[in-house]
Amino acid sequence: MCLAIPARITAIDHASDTAEVALDGVARSVSLALLDAAEVGDYVLIHVGYALNRIDPEEAERTLETMREAGLLAPGDAP
């Protein structure tokens, strides 16, 4: 079983095809190699350092809220 976590893109480096994403106050660099297109502000599903696909912002927030309820994110943490 694999787990992909939604995160919001905060910056894109087109030269290296990577993006910086933010979740729970932590920023990470991820590869955009598996996506056709992505923009700053998009939510993407992240798994092992790769953005797998874009996700609807409402669906991302529902998923993050479920993670908060499960104790995986602190209450009120913004993506």
UniProtKB/TrEMBL annotation:
This is Hydrogenase maturation protein HypC. Belongs to the HupF/HypC family. Pfam families: HupF_HypC (PF01455). NCBIfam families: hypC_hupF (TIGR00074). Coiled coil: none annotated. Transmembrane segments: none annotated.
